[in-house]
Amino acid sequence: MNTYKEYLKEIEERKAQGLHPKPIDGAELLSEIISQIKDENNEHRAQSLNFFIYNTIPGTTSAAGEKANFLKEIILGESVVSEITPTYAFELLSHMKGGPSIRVLLDLALGNDVAIATEAAKVLKTQVYLYEADTDRLKEAFENGNPIAKDIIESYAKAEFFTKLPEIAEEIKVVTYIAGEGDISTDLLSPGNQAHSRSDRELHGKCMISPEAQEEIKALQAQHPDKSVMLIAEKGTMGVGSSRMSGVNNVALWTGKQASPYVPFVNFAPIVGGTNGISPIFLTTVDVTGGIGLDLKNWVKKLDANGEPVRNENGDPVLEEAYSVATGTVLTINTKTKKLYNGDEELIDIAKAFTPQKMEFIKAGGSYAIVFGKKIQTFAAKTLGIDIPLVFAPSKEISIEGQGLTAVEKIFNRNAVGVTPGKVLHAGSDVRVEVNIVGSQDTTGLMTAQELESMAATVISPIVDGAYQSGCHTASVWDKKAQANIPKLMKFMNDFGLITARDPKGVYHAMTDVIHKVLNDITIDEWAIIIGGDSHTRMSKGVAFGADSGTVALALATGEASMPIPESVKVTFKGDMKGYMDFRDVVHATQAQMLHKFGGENVFQGRIIEVHIGTLTADQAFTFTDWTAEMKAKASICISEDDTLVESLEIAKGRIQIMIDKGMDNDKHVLQGLINKADKRIAEIKSGEKPALTPDANAKYYAEVVVDLDLIAEPMIADPDVNNKDVSKRYTHDTIRPLSFYGGDKKVDLGFIGSCMVHKGDMKILAQMLKNVEAQNGKVEFNAPLVVAPPTYNIVDELKAEGDWEVLQRYSGFEFDDNAPKGAARTEYENMLYLERPGCNLCMGNQEKAAKGDTVMATSTRLFQGRVVEDAEGKKGESLLSSTPVVVLSTILGRTPTIAEYKTAVEGINLTQFAPPHKQLVQ
């Protein structure tokens, strides 16, 4: 009985934190609980019954297996529990979603007891999480003349699991709660520094926004018990920055409805809104939970007498309130008229939130049920030899005669499944596509594992070319939280079929390479579709979509993803890049020039950026595609020249071979398969059989942006603008300033070179600059700490082979040691160079952080409040984002450099240069 006593001890510890008992997922504990239920005189029997019924995680957990088997015993009369009748046992099975519960239900439905089989069939008709082993059993029984199997399959063909669900209410009453002004990052809803607790939903829920906000939400719920609380980003976009399912889970936990009375802390149907709508990745996550995301448009540009926008002293459009959504405002969502009302007053059309597909997600309680439901219906119709009955809303298929295809339209058409044969689809079409590459990262990975268990998946889909589980987000500190979570995650994913950063058997050295860099290497076809558990899943080969942990799980389990084909914005370049500039400056200038051209409107938001970058290899081009997450784009596509693409694929092959040499390949030889596919693609390009992907010359774009390289005369810095009087303008990534703005005297407290935005060339720039400074000044002296975290181990190995790592070691005061990794996060820094373990480090902000109130100059991607640096009493922390040479020089000077100092410091250094392609990259 030790396991149960340990559980009771844990319950007492959680009670002290104001938490309920942790949901049970282990077979050993539940087996003890079942023994205590069977013992009528056991002192823990009543408590054990409660745990068994209400506190056991469903799906494919080992506990779910024990629960399903015990319920089967009760139904068959092999065990008698007065509190759980056979009828109640069937109800409990119906809430277990899949895996062992489906196996038990099939055993009962295909058994010899007709009465039991009939009841089991009733439950099975409501279930959708069936896999091949389950449908094969049904099909075999049907072909052998089993009438129950026939009845179930006929029900599936009619999709009664969906049609018999309650209809969506015509009116949904909401009460507003403004969560923040300006863009709301998922960091506010699920802070990165609490990543370790994401799989413990109740505990993680306590970190949403603030304790004060949580109390305010509870007060609104008490005041309006018949309404849902709608969380709002006032004057901003909801859910920018990261792809966290945990953010939506927290919103649902505080404002949604319980999905099942028998599964604690799993809620659905959250309602969120934003003045500028919902971030694309976040909106996908809202769909996963059957929620509603509204584009409120409650602040609009003020126009003058000529219909032109009125601008303030900074040149930004002045906004005026179209209608109020102040906290406590009662509004009505009408799902029939698809309008938002305040009383009888119509405020805005919200039809985009209630497309036929989204209505299905809402009715079914989430998008997964629809995805699996469609697969079950297809199986049933095929088994019965009938056409699929039209139950679900048909996918929107937009085909425009005479119009060419953008790059993303070409990729989606090639990978589409279930579309009208021979039909060419354009942007706006709803498409199911096969996924080639999938990535899971370590702070959302535990949630992905939970999602896989909940949808009863046990093995990766055979149509996925390759999948990787990273360890980069927890690379900085090997603390007790990491030691408890990461090995368990790696084992689960390795067993599931992924290539894992850490070998559960300990055969190869634990890797902490940044997930995006690894995915960029293992993507070996520019026609690929990639899904990754991070917003920075933005490859420079193929088209990659950052996704929540649930969408990653769905891609792993099914090899598919569903979404509309996005519109594209074409980005090309003209002019000459100045020799003293770095490509990172071109990236920032692209955003600045786009905003200037379109009067402050971000035409990139929610769209594909098709960047005609041509001459840069995948490593270097990744700096642009990676940053498109900060441009609020849905994804990006890099259009490359043939020779450059071949070079990129050869680099990728070399990196994959390194992984194989380290022993990272699995028994299915996934990594070797990727090399073979790369060889095939290289041969196609070289022979002219299939050149590098390009759009058609007559493709149609939402907008076109031509970046003028001649206008980029000095380094460009993304500034969080922490003191802007307009709160909504802070922490947006849209304030891009030239170096001279800072006058050479802004104090810099710490520098950071690392994250996914840097490549091997950046590490070499760092080494070259340090040698330059020593040659000019006789020594290198840091006036601010410089933290360096290379993205991958292979970069470190290559730097060692080429002599650059030795240079960095010479100037460093700390170098990571994998044999004795740090056990605690650093809280104080000296003015020296720190060579940290490859991984995310400060950019993630969940382990290492700068000192509170610091001004940080970083190559990172994140400038959100509290991410890299938190505020101090009376001083805001700020994270300025810039190129590697600017960061290096800022730490040596302890301040921002002047343009003259910068030019002197980079003389003779091989910065990342770029020249536009000589010819248009179109077909």
Question: Secondary structure elements and their pairing?
Answer:
Blueprint (H helix, E strand, L loop, with lengths): L1 H15 L10 H12 L6 H10 L7 H14 L10 H9 L5 H10 L4 H11 L7 H12 L3 H11 L2 H4 L7 E11 L2 E2 H4 L11 H5 L5 H13 L4 E7 L3 E3 L4 H11 L1 E4 L2 E6 L2 E4 L5 H9 L3 E4 L3 E3 L17 E3 L8 E5 L4 E4 L2 E5 L6 H9 L2 H18 L22 H9 E2 L12 E5 L2 E4 L4 H10 L11 E4 L10 H17 L2 E2 L14 H8 L6 E4 L10 E4 L2 H10 L1 E5 L3 E7 L8 H15 L10 E7 L3 H10 L7 E6 L1 H20 L8 H18 L15 E6 L7 E3 L17 E3 L11 E5 L5 H18 L8 E4 L3 H10 L1 H8 E4 L17 E3 L19 E4 L19 E4 L2 H10 L5 H7 L18
Parallel strand pairs: 1-3, 2-4, 3-7, 7-8, 16-17, 16-19, 17-18, 19-20, 22-23, 22-25, 23-24, 28-29, 28-32, 29-31, 30-31, 32-33
Antiparallel strand pairs: 1-11, 5-6, 9-10, 11-12, 12-13, 14-15, 15-21, 26-27
Helix pairs in contact: 2-3, 2-4, 4-5, 4-6, 5-7, 6-7, 7-9, 8-9, 9-17, 16-17, 19-22, 21-24, 23-24, 25-26, 27-29, 27-30
GO cellular component, one term: cytosol
Keywords: Iron, Iron-sulfur, Lyase, Metal-binding
Protein name: Bifunctional aconitate hydratase 2/2-methylisocitrate dehydratase
Q: Would you write up a description of this structure?
A:
The protein is of the alpha/beta class. The longest helix has 20 residues, at 642-661. The strands form 9 sheets. Strands 8-7-3-1-11-12-13 form a 7-stranded mixed beta sheet, with helices on one face. A 6-stranded parallel beta sheet has the order 30-31-29-28-32-33. Strands 18-17-16-19-20 form a 5-stranded parallel beta sheet, sandwiched between helices. The N and C termini lie far apart (70 Å). The protein is built from 31 helices and 33 strands. The chain is globular. Helices cover 38% and strands 16% of the residues. Helix 23 (583-597) links the parallel strand 22 and strand 23. Residues 178-405 form the Aconitase B swivel domain. InterPro entries: Acnase/IPM_dHydase_lsu_aba_1/3, Acoase/IPM_deHydtase_lsu_aba, Aconitase/3IPM_dehydase_swvl, Aconitase/IPM_isomerase, Aconitase_4Fe-4S_dom, Aconitase_B_HEAT-like_dom, Aconitase_B_HEAT-like_dom_sf, Aconitase_B_swivel. One of its GO terms (biological process) is tricarboxylic acid cycle.
